[in-house]
Amino acid sequence: MQNKQILDYIEQLIPERNDQLREIEEYAKKNDVPIMELIGIEALLQLLRIQQPKKILEVGTAIGYSALRMADALPSSQIITIERDEQRYIIAKENVKRLKRESQVILLQGDALELDSIVEQYGPFDAIFIDAAKGQYQKFFNLYSQFLADDGIVYTDNILFHGLVASSEIESRNVRQLVRKIKNYNQWLMENQDYHTAILPVGDGIAISKKRG
Ligand code: SAH
Ligand code: MG
Description:
The chain has a single domain, classed as Vaccinia Virus protein VP39 (Rossmann fold, 3-Layer(aba) Sandwich), CATH 3.40.50. Helices cover 42% and strands 21% of the residues. The chain has a 7-stranded mixed β-sheet, sandwiched between helices. The protein is of the alpha/beta class. The chain binds S-adenosyl-L-homocysteine and magnesium ion. S-adenosyl-L-homocysteine binds at residues 34-36, 60, 62, 65-66, 82-85, 88, 111-113, 131-133.
């Protein structure tokens, strides 16, 4: 997407995270856990600092990196986050404990598509952050936007999928299918009359959807 030189330049300007967060970043890198890219998470955190949501729902915890970054940036917010993978959930739980955020970050384990009745008890949410299986974004959106506060915002990560949404030559059939799903989601979201949506080409692409009044 953007020129690598520019991205390197921005990255080296971003202040170092504390040791504990850096350890999580290192772990993610070593173990191929797809946590948010640095410039992407910084942009998201800044949007959240402006918005000041009290309650955030995250779909896709992985090992808790983005949830812990949000907890750090918004000390008076509560974050409910869902992870399907048991191993990752366990590691996320350890990380939340190690960073002493147990009262702020609530971890739920299971398929997000089946946890709506549990999640509902924690709502309504001022912000919903969708960052799980890319083929199912529209399902996550439809299932959880019912618990969005009237002035709430849905943030969706990875909507540019390494720029592949703009590529016409994709060899792998599986990747092609996934790209088609993401493009369908982007199109649907941009046409959704209940929201104003803007796409930011930062990180892996973030859509910001604000409920219309
Ligand atoms: N938000 C994290 C990264 C999440 S990676 C961060 O930036 O730190 C995406 C995660 O979504 C993966 O760990 C995957 O296991 C999880 N996931 C995928 N589909 C899911 C589903 N249907 N329900 C819950 N979690 C899901
Ligand atoms: Mg992501």
